[in-house]
Amino acid sequence: MNTAAKELALALGMLALTTSCTAASNTSTQTQNSPSVTQVRDSGKAATATIKIDGSSTVYPITQAIAKDYQANPKNQVQVAVNISGTTGGFEKFCAGETDISNASRPILEAEMEACKKNGVAYMEFPIAFDALTVAVNPQNDWAKDITVAELKKIWEPEAQGKITRWNQVRASWPDRPMNLYGAGKKSGTFDYFTEAAVGKTRASRNDYTASEDDEVLVDGISKDPNALGYFGYAYYEKHQDKLKALAIDSGKGAVLPSRQTVEKVQYQPLARPLFIYVNFRDNQNKKLVNKFVEFYIDKAPTIASTVGYIPLPDDSKRLNYVHLYQDKVGTVFEGEAEMNLTIGELLRKEAKF
User: Fold this and answer.
1) What domain range is 219 assigned to?
2) Mind listing the pLDDT tens digit for each residue in 105-154?
3) How confident is the model over 85-106, as pLDDT tens digits?
4) Which residues contact 111 (CB under 8 A, 6 or more apart)?
5) CB-based burial, 15-50: b 16+ in 10 Å, e otherwise
6) Is residue 265 part of a domain?
7) Which pLDDT does position 42 carry in this prediction?
């Protein structure tokens, strides 16, 4: 970990800056920093040879690529198992102490924080990239080029179920054709984030659509259905651009397509969002294996995120992640809920105060 060592030197230089803010920030993370929180201990030998990761399909491409690189080095005598069950499904396993790392496309929620506390699972939170949540249609769709946030609400709100079923019901200039919807399953963090961003209330959604926690399933459905409209993480659009068409999002300031540039310039709102991994702070021999992998993850995340189609975070984020890892900083900088319209700069300021 030569690169990590270099980052450590830089990270330690920031300790003086972050320490003064730590006491104030701890008030938002008392649930996890409390001495009453005990740490989960493994009793079996299997965990010493396997790092178990589950959760978000949005974060999956980053974690899977990093795990592949890590295991390619024969010096890393460990297996990294990466699975998909959605952010919510991943937190269910994580807070039960069943996994070492949880991929998440939103911050941990209050109910999940309570579940972790109840089960004695202390965790570390690391932002690893930004996403441009993408609304897509089939390439044969030659009528829709953009869509407003108000129109997204009209389509996806619970009251639309069984009523808004044709394209011309959304915008009069669109054809009288059936509208077939594809979206995140209810154990997906994307479902939580999209419903709050588009409908205005978390988990408020119609149910008559093709749902999956696996974005590849949604991509496959939309690519085969000329009447489709759906949403998923930007990396899946980048990977399958030849069989999808992204719609520009108009939140009142003009239609904007998803891209690295529009996210960095704070133009792609409200569908730009941070992505995370959560690490189980285990006090046993598995902790060293996991921490070594997390060091590697932090180092590689910016490059891999960009490669698979997400927006990498600045170097300051990498250094802050190292500081938090080396300080064993458990907890969250959020208050049990996602924040709409969060920018990269605002995320970094939150992290610097942690």
Assistant:
1) 134-257
2) 999 999 999 999 999 999 999 999 999 999 999 999 999 999 999 999 99
3) 999 999 999 999 999 999 999 9
4) 336
5) eeebeeeeeebeebbebbbeeebeebebeeeebeee
6) no
7) 38
3-state SS, residue 79: strand
Residues 251 and 154 in one domain: yes
Predicted TM-score of the model (pTM)? 0.86
Q: How far is CA 323 from CA 32, 200, 238, 333, 352, in A?
A: 18, 35, 32, 14, 10
Q: Tokens 């941990």: give the residue.
A: 108
Please check whether residue 183 lies inside any domain of the structure: yes
Spatial CA neighbour of 193 closest among 237, 148, 263, 133: 133
User: Nearest-CA neighbor of 218 among 50, 352, 84?
Assistant: 84
How many other CB atoms sit within 10 Å of the CB of residue 111? Answer: 12
Residues 139 and 231 occupy one common structural domain:
yes
Q: Are residues 63 and 110 in the same domain?
A: yes
Q: Tally the domains of the chain.
A: 2
Q: What is the DSSP letter of 311?
A: B
As a whole number of Å, the CA-based R_g of the chain is 20
pLDDT of res. 282: 86
pLDDT over 60 at 31, yes or no: no
What pairs with residue 182 in β-bridges?
Answer: 210, 230
Instruction: Place 269 in a pLDDT band, splitting at 50, 70 and 90.
Output: very high
